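Hey L., structure's done. Input below.
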Amino acid sequence: MAHPLAGQPVPPQMLIDVPKLIAAYYELAPDPAVATQRVSFGTSGHRGSALKKSFNEAHILAVTQAVCDYRKAQGINGPLFIGRDAHPLSTPALMTAVRVCAANGVETRIAPDDSQTPTPLVSFAVLEHNRAHESRADGIVITPSHNPPEDGGFKYNPPSGGPADTDVTAWIEARANALLENGNNEVKAWRYETAIQSPNIARYDFITPYVNALEEIIDIKAIKAAKLRLAADPMGGSALEVYQAINARYGLEIDIVNTRVDPTFSFMHLDHDGKIRMDCSSPWAMASLVALKDRYDLAFGNDTDADRHGIVTPSGLMNPNHYLSVAVWYLFGHRPRWPKEASVGKTLVSSLMIDKVAAQRGRAVYEVPVGFKWFVEGLLNGALGFGGEESAGASFLRFDGAPWSTDKDGIIMTLLAAEIRAVTGKDPAHIYRELEARHGRAYYARTDAPATPEQKKRLKNLKPDDITAKRLGGDPIEGIFTEAPGNGAPIGGLKLTTRRGWVAMRPSGTEDIYKIYAESLHSEEHLATLQQEAAAIVDAALD
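Output:
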């Protein structure tokens, strides 16, 4: 059940105290003997809050030094591209990272005038450099994605351009914690005033090369010719300047309905649980843009680092799974130069509709655990034409089959929606209804439940033999999976399948909750039964 204030404007009393938060970043010292205060890389890097001693200057000193050490050990000798979003902790964290990079002699590129840089633009910059130079570049993105304003985040993208794989993050995490345990005595760091003047630190225009190249992946001419009424909401994040540049370069006249950049995110509407969360896939958080749906052919939003997308049609905000299905249907029918063997990448908690559409297009499905890192290699070598997550993150290849971004790119996904509308004359929601008419309806939902760190650990390590239930939603359980079918990697939880649906349970990497994903091919009532029985199965396994 949603919070009573879900979808409502943020009450003034809920706004964070930004000076207090930033002071905590510098003044509070984490205790590495406390598990929650150590560096921990989840599916999207290290995240935490300065007030909880989980994202403080000590953490960023240690993690950045660990990245510098990793680069040296791997012989990565090109520039390190660093981007950040609008969360209050992102700017001090960037300043800390610059101090360490300069002292370690790392050639570092940051945006001019301390402007924001979206995640996909960092990935794009890394790949563009590596395509044109012998030296290898990599990247850092300082962002907690769509998390609440008090959170901070730090993730590393190696020369492949996308999120680092577990072997890389495990190395960086272990090195960072060793540095923390030693009081960061081994960290090399200059004063910021000295570091920013260092020849190792240079300003870099992330936006212009990215925007100029958009014609290589999106049919901009078709969008412009269709004279669509388009609107974009950057949700106070890093997509703002990109959309402004797109309008200036291509004359698309996208209405940017929110140009505010406010570290408290006071302009937001509260999410389903009553928290401020810049989640562009949430109808509650996106309430202000959804209210404009009748004024535009399409409207779209991005989270603060622009790696996620939200698509609003005259019917309302699309379910992410629905739009991913439409994107797969469209792209594999309108990209004739893509490799004929290129597959569809999906996470195992994404909708079965994607499988049905992929089969319709004659493409194989590559099903992996949650985490975009599993798509990086496939997008880089063309084995995947598209990779997408149910949490509204995706990327795909250029027209000629070359890689574009091996990290999630919410901007090309919003522009793709406009291309679909321009080329087909139908908005994506209309096309999804046509897919339902052909393949049948799929009823999907994700719910969260509280879990202690110990319960999360136990859930992550469950084995098929731990499940004693034989039936689910009135049907025999046909499969119990702890590894993904596509690559055999551990899913960090459990997935159960029946002939009429499936459920998956996995712990959150950033919050004290676990997530239950469920999909029924039968009815809403059957979906509710799957959810209830899945929760009971988890409770029994964790008891």
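DSSP finds 17 helices and 23 strands in the chain. Residues 113 and 128 are 22 Å apart (CA to CA).

-- N.
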